């Protein structure tokens, strides 16, 4: 990196490494770590960068002792890449350095802006969708006995559970005998109207109330049922990291086709990509894509 940035004014003399071969590095190898004293004695060195892998941190004291009181600047490059799992970073608080190994993007003003975004566009969406929601509610009442709305426990931000609202698309007590079952294309539990609502994702519209109540966001990873979460966290490394932000009605995985009975691994990959790169502009892009491509999805059933 220093060789690619000549503007910083640092000329790389060489590398000290236990590995005799360092492919891809066009700098001379000056020896192993234990030879740093002899290198400092025979060359004019101004700065020493110590960039040890985390597994070699036990050798740090020996390297510093070998440098001794030489009037050289010493910079330590921490190996956070092997430890960080989500939005790693460095900051200083009252002279104390902090290395963030796992951090949600939604804190401070980001949290305030995200909530304001949800309230503004959530209210507008609810006003626009109100006639459609009223028509769906009437059709459900006329088509089959049972409640219009269906409440289902889902897992949201920081693993907190909440009751997610949906228009009812299944027969009453459809899971009484089977328990929680993953939806499939030929799901026999659906009503005829429910099939239509799922196909066009109209059953998700009541979740606008979840957004206004602060339980969900317009954009974020789709929430799952706790029983499925326990299964997926055993199968997919990093699965629970998606709960560092509020669950959403739509998300980056969904607009890219990863919904329904598709790869959980790919869905998590897209969810974590969204969290790592979250901005209000990214949220707006996902909302525009959701509206532009429509609510119809071949994996919605």
Write up this protein.
The protein is elongated. 35% of the residues lie in helices and 14% in strands. The model has no long low-confidence stretch (mean pLDDT 87). A hairpin with a 2-residue loop joins strand 5 (89-93) and strand 6 (96-100). Strands 1-2 form a two-stranded parallel ribbon. It has a two-stranded parallel ribbon with strand order 3-4. The chain is built from nine helices and ten strands. It has helices at residues 36-42, 60-67, 109-143, 192-199, 207-212, 226-235, 252-255, 264-276, 280-293; strands spanning 15-16, 29-31, 47-50, 73-76, 89-93, 96-100, 149-155, 161-167, 217-219, 248-250. By secondary structure, the protein is of the alpha/beta class.
Distance between the termini: 49 Å
> Helical proportion?
25-40%
What is the tally of helical segments? 9
Q: Kindly name the structural category.
A: alpha/beta
* Uncertain residue segments: none
């Amino acid at each position: 990196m220093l060789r690619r940035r000549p503007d910083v004014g640092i000329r790389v003399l060489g590398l000290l490494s236990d590995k005799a071969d360092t492919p891809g590095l066009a700098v001379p190898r000056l020896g192993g770590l234990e030879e740093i004293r002899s290198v400092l004695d025979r060359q004019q060195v101004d700065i020493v960068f110590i960039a040890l892998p985390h597994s070699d941190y036990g050798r740090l004291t020996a390297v510093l002792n070998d440098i001794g009181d030489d009037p050289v600047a010493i910079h330590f490059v921490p190996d956070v890449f092997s430890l960080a799992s989500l939005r790693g970073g460095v900051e200083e608080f009252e002279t104390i350095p902090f290395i963030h190994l796992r951090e949600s993007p939604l804190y401070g003003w980001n949290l305030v802006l995200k909530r304001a975004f949800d309230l503004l566009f959530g209210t507008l969406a609810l006003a626009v969708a109100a006639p459609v929601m009223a028509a769906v509610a009437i059709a459900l009442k006329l088509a089959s006995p049972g409640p219009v709305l269906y409440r289902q426990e889902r897992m949201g931000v920081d693993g907190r559970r909440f009751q997610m609202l949906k228009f009812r698309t299944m027969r009453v007590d459809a899971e009484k005998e089977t328990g929680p079952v993953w939806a499939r294309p030929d799901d026999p539990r659906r009503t005829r109207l429910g099939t239509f609502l799922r196909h066009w994702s109209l059953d998700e519209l009541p979740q606008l109330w979840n957004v206004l109540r602060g339980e969900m966001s317009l954009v974020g990873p789709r929430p799952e049922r706790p029983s499925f979460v326990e299964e997926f966290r055993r199968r997919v490394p990093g699965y629970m990291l998606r709960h560092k932000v509020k669950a959403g009605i739509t998300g980056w995985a969904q607009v890219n086709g990863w919904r329904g009975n598709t790869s959980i691994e790919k869905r998590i990959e897209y969810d974590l990509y969204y969290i790592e790169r979250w901005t209000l502009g990214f949220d707006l892009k996902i909302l525009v894509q959701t509206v532009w491509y429509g609510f119809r999805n071949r994996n919605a059933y």
